[in-house]
Amino acid sequence: MKQTTVVQHVQQQEKKILGATGEFASLINGILVGAKIIALEINKAGIGGDILGATGTRNVYGEAVQKLDDLANSTFLSIISKSGTVCAITSEEMENPVIIPPEQAGKYVFMMDPLDGSSNIDVNVSTGTIFSIYRKKSLGDTVTDQDLLQKGTDQVAAGYVVYGSSTMFVYSSGHGVHGFTLDPSLGEFILSHPDIRIPERGNIYSINEGNTENWEDKQKKFVSYLKKMDKASGRPYKARYVGSFVSDFHRNLLKGGIFMYPSDAKNPSGKLRFEFEAGPMAFIAENAGGRASTGRERILDIAPTNIHQCVPLYIGSRFDVEAAEEFLKN
Ligand code: P6P
Q1: Does 117 share its domain with 136?
Q2: What are the start-end ranges of the H helices in 98-203?
Q3: How do the pLDDT tens digits run along the chain, 330 residues long?
Q4: Do the domain assignments include residue 188?
Q5: Whole-number Å distance between alpha carbons of 112 and 275
Q6: What are φ and ψ of residue 121, in 5° steps?
Q7: Residues in a beta bridge with 58
Q8: Is the CB–ligand 1 distance for residue 244 below 6 Å?
Q9: Which of 10, 126, 133, 187 has the smallest set of CB atoms within 10 Å of its CB?
Q10: Which atom of ligand 1 is nearest to the CA of 119?
Q11: 204-206 and 157-163 as β-strands: parallel, antiparallel, unpaired?
Q12: Is the CB of 116 inside a 6 Å radius of any atom of ligand 1?
């Protein structure tokens, strides 16, 4: 059976990306190398080495930074910054962007959540890496907000790695969504899920119901609606919440369903980050035929005002996200 690697697939896709010069394939290859290193670290985290647990520091969101967060961030930073493909890197784990010196810079802007759901590492629950790629927009060598705060629709590509029962790489460059599974014996990600399409409607809802008391009434009403018995509309939906966005998103992408992290009294702007979580996954969701909104606005129409901006998030099967929007409208 002919096996297709990610780089072969990207090279085929590059023919459809205007102005692609091979830099994009090099950038993707750098992400794959980082992903393989992190997968190895995660798989042996419990054996020797001092890689589990927290660093004792907090990130810009006030969240406890896990040792593997730091390792993932530094690993991707080291590889991508030297790839000659990017002019700037922003990360959920770094307060400020890293600007690449012009003589070593390329035409892309790279944004990442290096290890999403890392609090799950110590209990062996799957986690992931999320990334987003934009083109540098401003003229000249200087990197400006015009490059760092771009509208979601300006993404050139986005994707994620899920470190689960197998390690998978899923990406879109605007021409479908494609999944690759790491063959550890080869050390290559092999095409396993070509042209993923999210079911138009699912029967799974993912939300942290521990926050119910903080939700607005319309949100409470929507979740109650999903739980009501109504065979004709496939209700009640099943509740599935891993606590790692990448895992919840990946399951819903393949099986259908909706993931919600609404704004609430505790997080008025929601918890998920536009540049590192909501924006890239919205790009994936829409390219797979799904939908992603704040409940009131299309995620991809947002241009962030700062690199750490959070947004409320409803993402997944088109029908289910539209149903949520209806409840939030009335
Ligand atoms: P809560 C992990 O920190 C994360 O950003 C997502 O991966 C996950 O969906 C969410 O936060 C979990 O947040 O408040 O339910 O623990």
Answers
A1: yes
A2: 145-148
A3: 589 999 999 988 877 766 667 899 999 999 999 999 999 988 887 776 677 778 888 888 888 888 889 999 999 999 999 999 999 999 999 999 999 999 999 999 999 999 999 888 888 899 999 999 999 999 999 999 999 999 999 999 999 999 999 999 999 999 999 999 999 999 999 999 999 999 999 999 999 999 999 999 999 999 999 999 999 999 999 999 999 999 999 999 999 999 999 999 889 999 999 999 999 999 999 999 999 999 999 999 999 999 999 999 999 999 999 999 999 997
A4: yes
A5: 8
A6: -55, -50
A7: 64
A8: yes
A9: 187
A10: 3
A11: unpaired
A12: yes
How many other β-carbons are positioned within 10 Å of the β-carbon of residue 40? 12
Q: Cα(281) to centroid of ligand 1, in Å? A: 14
Compute the distance from residue 278 Cα to the ligand 1 centre, in Å. Answer: 12
262 lines ligand 1 (CB under 6 A): no
- Both tokens of 279, joined, read 């924006």
Going from the Cα of 119 to the center of ligand 1, the distance in angstroms, rounded, reads: 9
Let me know whether 74 and 168 are in one domain: yes
Nearest CA to ligand 1 atom 10: 243
The domain spanning residue 276 has which CATH number? 3.40.190.80
- Kindly state the tokens that stand for 209: 């119901």
The pTM assigned to this predicted structure is 0.96
